[in-house]
Structures are given as C-alpha cells and as structure tokens.
Amino acid sequence: MRLQNLAACASSILFICMFAFGQTQPSETDSEKDKKKKEIDERVVQMLDQTINEGDGLLLPQNRALVYGISGDLYWKFDAKRSRELFRKAGFEIIAYNQENEKEKEKREIADAFSDVFGSGAEARNEILLLVAKRDAELALELLLMTRPTKLADAILRASQPNAKSSGGGMFSFDFDRQRVSQELALEQQFAMLVADENPEKAIKLIKDSLSKGVSTNVLPLLQKLNKKDEKMAAELAGEVIKKLVDSDLAKNDENMSAAINFLQFAFKPPPASTQTKDKEFSFSDTQVKDLANKVANALLQPSKTMATAMMLNQAMPMLEKFVPDKVLLLKQRQTEISANMPSEFQRMQDQMKLFNPNSTPEDIIAQLPKLNEVEKILANQSLIAKIGQIEDEARAKKLIDQISDQKTRTTALEQFEAARIGRTASAGKLDEARNLIGNLTKKGTQIQRLVSLATDFYQKGGEKDIDNSKSLMKDARALTNEFAESSEDLADFMEVVKGYTIVEPDIAFGMFERVIEQINNYIHASAVIAKYNTRNSGFVHGELSFKGQGNSRNMPLFRFEFEIQQLGKADFERMSMLADKLHRTDSRTMVKLWTLQGTLSDGKNQNRSNATGGVNIIF
Amino acid sequence: MSFQNLIAVTVLIALLFSPSVSVAQIPQTDAQIAAAKKKKEIDERVIEMLDASVNEAASLRLSGNRAVVLALIGDLYWRYDINRSRELFRYSATEIIRHNEDYEREKRDGPVSSNMEFSDPNDPRVEILSLVGNRDPELALEFLAPTRSASLVEAMTKAPVTNQSAGLGSGSGLGSGVGTRIGESNGAGNFDRQRVDQEIALEQRFITMSALSDSEKAIKTIKESLAKSISPSITSLLNTVYLKDEKKAFELSIDVIRKIVGTDLTKNASDLNAVVSILQFASRPIPTTTGKLTYFSYSDTQTKEIANKLASTFLQAVSTPSMTSALPRALPLLEKVLPEKLTLLKQRDLQNRKNNSASNNTQGPARYYDQNTPPEEIIAMAAKLSNERDKAVAYQALSARVGQITDDARAKKLISQITDPKIRSTVAEQYESVRISRLTATDKLDEARGAINAITDKRIRLQRLAALAFQFHRKGGEINRENAAGLMLEAKQQTNPFPDDEDELADLMEVVKGYAVVEPDTAFQLFEPVIYQFNEIIQAAAVLSKYNKRDRSFKKGELIMRVNGNIGGGLLAFRYIQQMQLLATADFERMSVLSDKFQRSDSRMIIKLFILQGYLRNVPVSSGVRPS
Asked: Which helix (H) or strand (E) holds B601?
C-alpha cells in the first residue's frame, strides 16, 4: 500500500511537473509574442513617420491633409499628443486647400465665368473631421469651425436668418449652398452627439447653438443617446427641436420641412419588436407630435403647385392621417388639386417609386410588370431580383422566378437566390451542404465569391479537416480565375481569391497580389497620361493622384482594392510594406502604406469591405 | 507677197522659233506636264494606299470596324472605279450583318444591366448607309433591310406605322428628324418606337435621294408621298420633274397645294413644319436666266394659298406648343406674302409667348434655352433669381443668344444689364468673338484685326487670328500674304510647341490649322512632335479601357472606329482630323509619311483613310488613272 501510495504520489508529482513544464512554455511564447509585438509596433511607428515625411512632399494640400488625418488616427494608440498635432496639421492643410481652391476658381472664372456652374470639387474635409471626431470629438468641432470655407460660413449665416428660404426653383433647380449647409450642420450635430458620451451638458449646449442655424435629422440619434443618460434632459431638448421647427416657415424652407416629415415618420413607426434592453427608447411626446403634424399640414395646405410640394404631401400623408385626422379631408382635396396640375409623367414617376419601396412585395412587382414600359420593366426586374434574393421560402422564391418572362432576368434571379441560399446554409453551419450547392451556380464570379466565403467559414472552424477543406475550396476558386487578368471582371475575381487566401494561406495571397501591383502601376500611369489631357479629370491634379478624386478615378484598381490591401497588411505587415514599395509613384505608394498600416492596426472587427472612403470606415 | 512682206514673215517665223521665245514657253508647258505627272503619281499612290487598306481591313478584330473601313474605302474609290466601290460597299454591308450578330450575342450573354442598353452604342450602320446613300441611294435602299438587326426587325414588326413616319424624310439629306405628333410625346422608355421612326425616315430619305435624279421616279414618289403626308422635300422632287417636264411639274404642284389646303395642320407637327418650309421656298426671290425660270417655283396664287392656310392655322382658337414654336419662324414669311394679316398674327404670337411663360413657370433652364424666349426676357428672369448657380445658368443661355444678335447696339445694351462683372466680361468677350467672325467673313479684315487686339481669352484670340490669316491668304497678293504670315506668327508665339495639357494642345492645333493653309511647312513642323503625344494618349486609353466595361473607346483591345470621325468615342488624338486633312491637302506625301508614325495599326489605318478623304475632297481626279 505504501509502495502503491508512493508510486501514486511519484506519478502525481511527475504529472504535475510535466504539467508545470507544459505551463512554462506558453509564458515564454507570450514574452516572445510581446517582444515581437513591440518590434512590430516600433516598425509601424517608424513606417508611420516615414509616410508622414513622404506626405510632406506631396503637391496637393488635400492629399497632405488626408495623410496627416489618417496618420493622426493611426498614431492615437501610440501617442495621443502627437496624434492631435497631426490632426491640427491636417486642419491647416484643409485651410490651405480651401484657399488654393478659391484662387483656382477665381482664375477659372476670369477666363470663363461659366466654368464652375455645375462644379463642386471633391473634398477631404468631412472625411478627415470624422476621423478626428472618432478620437476627440471636441477637437473635431474646433477643426470644423477652423476649416470652414468662407463661402460655407456665409451660407450658414444666410440660412440661419429668420426668413431664410430655399433659393432653388423646385424640381428644375438645385440649391447647392443649402445642401452644403445641411451637410455641415449634420456633421456639427453628429460631433456634438459624440461629445455627449463624455459631457452631456456640453453636448446639449452645442446642439442648441447648432439648432439656431438649422435642424438636422441627425439630432434624433443624439436624443436617443441622451435619453439613455437622462430622460428629462432628452425631453427638454426634443421640445426645443420641435419648437424650432414649429416656429419656422416650413412652406419656405424645404430642409426644415424634410426634417419635420422625418420626425413624424419616426413617431409614426411602431417601436422595435425586440425591446429586451432595459433602456427606454426615446419618443416625442403626443403634444410635440401633434404640434409638428399640425404645422406640417398647415404648410402643405398653403397654395403651391410645385412638384416638390406634391411629393412631400404624398410622403407625409400616412403620418398626417394618423396624427391630424381632422385635417385629412382638406389635405386630400389639396392632394387631388395638385395632382390635377401635375404632368402625367409625375403620376407615372410616383407609381414607379412604389416599385422600389421596401414594403412592396415581389408579387406586387410581378403584377405591375405588364403595365410598364421598357425602362420601367428593366428597373422593376432589377428590384425583383434583389427582393427574390432575400426570400428564404424556396417554394415561394421558385414560384416567383418561374413567373419572370425575361429569360436573362429569370436566370439572374435564380442565381441570386441560389447564392443567398448558399450563404444562409453556410451561416447555419451546414458547410458541406453549402459546398454542394455551389455546383448549382452558373456564373463564374458568383461561384468564386461563394467558394471563397465558404473557405473562410471552414477555416474559422479551425479543425484539421476543416482547414484542408478550406484549402481545397480556395484551390477550386483559384482554378476559376484568369491568372493574367484581361478585364475588370477578371481582376475582381482574382482579387476575391487573394482576399480568401489572405486568411487561409497568406503566402499564396502575397504571391498573387504581387502580380496585381504591376497592373496597378500600369493603370495609374495610363490614368495620369489621360488626366494630363483632360481638364475636367479630377483623378489627378497638377499631375498628382488625388486621394479624393471622383467618378472613374475612384474605380481604378488601386482604390477598389483598399480593403484587400488592408487585409494583407493585417496578415503580414512586413511583407505588405515591401509590396507597397513596388508601386512606382510616390502618391499611390503613400496611400497604400497608409492602408497597410490601417490593416495592421485594425482590431479585426471590421472584416467587411468599406465603401472606399479613403480608409475611413466609422460606425457611429 | 512683196519682198518686204516676205522678210517680215521670215522675221516673224524666226522670232517665233527663236530661243528666247521658246525658253519662255517651254518651261510653262513642262510645269504643266510635271504637275499632271505628279498628280497622276499621287493618284496612283492613293489607289495603292486604298488597296493596302482593303487588305489591312481583314486583319481588324471587330466586324463593326471592318464595316467602317470598307465603307470609307468604297466611298473614296468612287471617283476611280464605281464598280469596285459598290463591291466594297457590299463587303461593308456583310460586315454590318456580322456586327449585328456579334452585338446580339454579347447582349444575350451579358449581365441583366446590359438590358438598359436599348440600342447598340457602337452601331455603325446608319452612318455607313448614309455614306453609301450619298453615292448610290438605290444601293443604300438595297442594303437597308438585310442589315437590320434582329431587334430592329422585331421592333418594326411590333410597331404600327404612324402617319408622320410614313411620309418623306428630308430630301436634302440634312437630318432625318422624325416629327412628333401634337399633344402626344414619344413617351419615356418607348425606344423601339423611336428606332422604328428613325429607320423609316432613313428609308424615305434614300427614296427621295434616288428619285431626285429620275423624273419618272420623282413623279411616283411625289404621288405616294402626298397620299400619306406633307414633306418639305417635295419641292426638290418637283424640281427634278420640272427640269424634264415643266407642265407635269405644275400639274403636280396643284396636287401639293390641294393636299396642304385639305390637311388639318394643327394635328401633326411634322405637317405644319413642312408647310412652313414650303412657304419659305415659295416666297424666296426667284432666280432667272434670260427670262426663263432655272428652278421650279410655285405661282403667286399658290404661294398665297399656302400662306393663307398657315395663317388660318395659327389664328385658331387654341395654340398647341408646336404652333407656338412654328409661328415666330413663319412670321417673316407671312409678312411678305400676307401683310394684311400681320397685325393679327403678331398679336397671336405675343399671346402665345405670354401663355407659354405662364405655363412654364417651373421649367427654369428649359425656358432660357427656348429659342422663342427673347434675350431681354432671360435677363429679366435672371435678375429675379437668388440662387447664384441658377443665375449663371440663365446667363450662360443668354450668352449663346447674344452671340446670334447682329445689332451691335442691342447686344451691348443686353450685356451691360448683366449684373455680375465676371459673367458680363465673359459674355462680352464671346459676343466680340462672334462679331470678329462676322467681320472676317464679310471681308472687313482690318476692322477684325483691330477687334482681335481687345480679346483677352487666349483660345478665342488664336482662333480669330488663324481665321483672319486664312482670309488674308485667300485674298492673295503680296501684302495680304505678308499680313497672313504676320498674323500666324503672332498666334504661334502664344502657343506652347510641347503642350502640357488639353488646352495648350487645342491652342497649338488651332495654329497648325492656320499654318496648314498659310505656310504648310511650318504646320508640318509643329504637328510632327504632337503625334508622339497622340500615341501616348491612345496607348493609355487602351490600357484603361481594358479595365472598364463601359468604355466606348476600345473593344477587345481594338479602337472603335466610326465613319463620322468620332473615333474611340471622341478620344483626344482624333479630335484633330480636320488638321490632318488640311495638311494632307497641302502635301499629301508628307502627311502620308507622318501618318506612319502612329504606332498602333488600328489608329494608323483609320487616320490614313481620313487623310485620303481630306485630300480627295479638294483635288480633281486625273484622267486615265485606274486601279492596278
């Protein structure tokens, strides 16, 4: 027994020792990891500094502003002070851009007074300020004022006058200034909302100041946020917002009318189904809603024959029926009167809009199809394809698809439905079943997307067999691509596979992407040549790639693959940095380095493609 | 003959054959012979180039491009060998059919979004058929049906034939616009209807063109046309008949008047516009040679009948938009023929304008661009606008209208009313530019020269200098030629010989255009380096097109060609075809050599054809030149 106990004890000690030995190993790995992380951090800061230096050499102030703005954002985790400095530097560059822009405009107008009738250059300002706001909302507000162009400040001042009215002439005119004022106020109120996290009182003061210039629908999320902290404070602010609208002349101010209708829609919408949280949802009081509805109804009852009034009346009608039923008869008379004066195309346009209404069912659209002309039919079919793709009931979807007379639309709808079904099956964890379904797809692009998506799903499960499956799926996807892309579709397919390999087998992803770099170089060079001989090209300014260009320039492979570059940066910072150096031009190289850094420093929560906003993807 | 006379004759003969006289005459003959020889050599070279292009066309990837190239060669061959030309046109038609098949297949296999493309944007058919029609309308008619795409045939089967589209097209070949039924718009989305109308108008245009050279056919066409509608081209057909049989032409003209009088012109805008055009012809001064009419003309009574019909139409209780728009055009004609009704018609015109502006309150920019809106009204409307951009749009429309004013005082008064100083200066400059063009065209060259100095816009100044230089050069004489050279030098000094952007390139090419006439050698020197830039642009566009599905410059890596010169969807390098054609006219051989410097075979091929087109347009054909 003793011997037995001794033996047992000895084996226990041995086991414990083994276990202890086993435990010391990870602690060493952690330290290695820490060391490695520190090294990478140092390298990241080094690269950031280097990119900032390269940014100094850029020609365009708006490009420099963007480099400093993004760098400031990336520096935050290392040095908030330096970060703020960079944000301020970005602010000064925005001011330089505003001044340069005004000078250029002046020069153009001297040569031809009509040169800028429809022009409004792309601006990096809002994008940079959003980056600042994510880190320091108060600084963002300060920079918002500091970088506000003189003309915009004047327009805000004009718009805040008691009897300010839209100067647009309805359907056939567009008041650009008014539009810019609305955007600016929305931004201001959005920043104020961020301040509310730290300092609700200050946020309320900021909002009240902002309300004196105009009302933005952005105030709604703020009210909801405030409501969670202090219901009374939120109710008071809501009262002021409604008062501001009720005191204004809605018939003369389209923006206020639009905000008022939005608030009524908010009040009209039933509370969300899942009210599991303890927080009470914000809502306007009945009196506030009634006051606002009365004001809107009275404004719409004023004599006006514009299409804008007709559209607003149609939009507001369901809410007004609910909140001011006593005025419905008069409003309907008014609606009939306005409709009678509207061209027949207007009614048709209204009917057409119903096809794209989120509430209309695919069955509704199919029923409408025979009455539509060629263009409307195509638009309706596109809406139909999207709606069928969302249907989970296979029998209903297939019945609908069978009813589509146009063969191409039918095939696409079926493909879309199948693709969505594969996605749902994979989400439900039935990966093998999903893999089998991919065989039903006929389009190469959709097949590649699904294969890649399934491969990453398998990979995330983590088992040996799953990883093997994942690799095999990626191999299938790659076999479908053209290794030497000949078109934008080829390139998109190829990059889809790169994206998948970034997760499953980064080494292959880097090998593939290296080939794309050469194509990106060729494309940018060709774009620069074309831009040189096209004065209206906003992709390049004074020979430098504009990071905020519009139109086709945003479609160039460089900007289209921002997300993939970020993912590659996340997978292997050093390797992606080396690839970035293969870009020939300083402008594009600087941008790719910033994206690489963004990917490296990202927390991995954002695994989805952003809307190509120059690396900015902020969710408030 | 006396001895003295004999001596005199001998001396005369001796003089005639003396070396001094012979020397004076022989070089002139040699020069003529040499010129003719040179001309013949060039013609042979042209044919050689055309034949080479036929061979090269086979190597083109796009059927549409092969169709364009073969049609252009067929057109250029016409002066040398009509049979060969027709043969080439037939090959071109076959390629159009192939192009249609390719397009239909691509559309069928393309994504759903391609359904939004209602017609083939690269369809070369109408342009090619028009080219064929200008040479041989019968052949164009023969090609019409077989070259229709399946979708067009389907649309034609489905669509009912409307009255207006069944009538004659514009016989002059200047546009084949289809009228719109009064009170009935084509309706957004009714693209098939539009395509069918265009097709029928094209057919009618070829029928008219074909009848213009054959009086029997013309009689038949007039009768068929009158059974359907009223067409402005009926007058041209009447003239064809008139040249052969005056009596028959006048008999037919009675039918035409009967048709006009018996038609309710308020019902169809095309008919109304056609009658205004007929009145325009009927009321023109009649040119005569030795008392005999050289061209068909309506009698005074007939002219009065047409005018009365129009007047009674315009004075009806309700004016439709088409009537409102046609009345201002008809007023000066009616004033000549029916002065007694002028007051009433003017009152109606005023009333129409008032009604129009009341009902168009919301139409903003459309109102500014309406030709019936007087510039004074645009000024008044602009003054009431508070939105700066709307105001600029109004002034932009005004600027175009001011340019049309020939009364200097009125134009200047209008310009002075523009409140924005920058816009005022731009409009003034644009007006001045148009005025200089008018002065140049009316040979007031010194006055134009003085006015150019006041222009501050570089491009306008260059354009005017080059145009003026051309006019001086055309007048001939040593002083005028010196003036021309001086003006061109002044223009040249303001350009950058190595353009850095689109504007600088446009400036330089303006100077090349002037020099191509005034001093071709300088034009060639200026143009040659630009070809390298053109190559760079074409190559860059080819790279970009590869990654852009919606690109209209290239397809399958090949430049998209068009008969009308809009190559590569308006690619910058091809905007200067006029300059290349002028250079070819000045020195065909030199321009041919330069065209070889275009790097891509597709661009080189099409440029060569346009160069040939430019050259052949300006030179007569040599006798005895036949293709090898």
From this structure: helix B601-618
Using CA coordinates, name the residue in chain A closest to B457: A111
Please name the helix (run of DSSP H) or strand (run of DSSP E) that holds residue B310, with its range, or none. helix B300-314
The C-alpha of A538 sits at a distance from chain B's nearest C-alpha, in angstroms, of 14
Contact between chains at B537 and A529 (C-beta distance less than 8 A): yes
User: What is the tens place of the pLDDT at every residue in A244-268?
Assistant: 889 888 887 777 888 899 889 888 8
Look at residues A214, A314, A209 and name the one whose alpha carbon lies nearest to residue A254: A214
Residue B293, beta-bridge partner list: B288
What is the rounded (10 degree) CA torsion for A254, A260, A261, A264? 180
Percent of chain A with pLDDT over 90: 36
Nearest chain B residue to A376, by CA: B189
What does the alpha-carbon distance between residue B628 and residue B625 come to, in Å, rounded to a whole number?
9
Rounded (10°) CA dihedral B378, B379, B384, B386: 90
**Helix/strand/coil (H/E/C) assignment for every residue in B495-564:** CCCCCCCHHHHHHHHHHHHHHHHHCHHHHHHHHHHHHHHHHHHHHHHHHHHHCCCCCCCEECCEECCCCC
Q: At which residue do the structure tokens 């690799």 appear? A: A471
Residue B149 half-sphere exposure toward CB, CA atoms < 13 A = 24
Give the minimum alpha-carbon distance from B62 to chain A in angstroms, rounded to a whole number.
Answer: 17
CB A388 within 8 A of CB A399: no
Q: Which residues of A touch B537 (CB under 8 A)?
A: 529-530, 533
Burial A438-451 (b: 16+ CB within 10 A, else e): beebeeebbbbbbb
Q: Which helix (H) or strand (E) holds A172?
A: none
**Spatial distance between the Cα atoms of B465 and B463, rounded to a whole number of angstroms:** 6
Beta strands in A137-249 (DSSP E): none
Q: Is A479 helix (H, G, I), strand (E, B) or coil?
A: helix
> Is residue B96 a contact partner of residue B142, using CB atoms and an 8 Å limit?
no
Rounded Cα distance between B386 and A168, Å, is: 8
Cβ-contact B218, B211 below 8 angstroms: yes
Look at residues A543, A466, A573, A470 and name the one whose alpha carbon lies nearest to residue A40: A573
Give the residues across from A541 on adjacent strands: A544
At B587, is the secondary structure helix, strand, or coil? Answer: coil
- Looking at residue A378, the DSSP 8-state letter turns out to be H
DSSP code of B340?
G
Quote the tokens at residue A512. Answer: 């593939």
Which of A305, A374, A488 shows the shortest C-beta gap to B548? A488
Q: In this structure, what DSSP letter does residue A602 have?
A: S
A48/A65 Cα distance (integer angstroms): 15
Distance of residue B531 Cα from the nearest chain A Cα, in angstroms: 14
**% of chain B with per-residue pLDDT over 70:** 85
Cβ contact A114–B362 (<8 Å): no
pLDDT grade for B359, boundaries at 50, 70 and 90: low
**Rounded-to-integer distance, Cα B283 and Cα B333, Å:** 7
Question: What confidence tens digit (pLDDT) does each residue in B45-72 have?
Answer: 899 999 999 999 999 999 999 999 999 9
Residue in chain B lying closest to A304 (CA) = B362
Question: Quick one: which H or E segment has residue B123?
Answer: none
**DSSP-derived secondary structure letter, B425:** H
Interface test with A, best of B61, B109, B112, B533 (most A CBs within 10 A): B112
| Residue A16: pLDDT band with limits 50, 70, 90 | very low
Those residues whose C-beta lies under 8 Å from the C-beta of residue B607, and which sit 6 or more positions away, are: B577, B580, B595, B598
Q: Is B106 on the interface with A (CB under 8 A)?
A: no
In terms of DSSP bridges, do strands A544-545 and B288-289 run parallel, antiparallel, or are they unpaired? unpaired
Q: Determine the 3-state secondary structure of B289 from DSSP.
A: strand
Q: What is the 3-state secondary structure (H, E, C) of A337-366?
A: HHHHHCCHHHHHHHHHHHHCCCCCCHHHHH
ipTM over 0.95: no
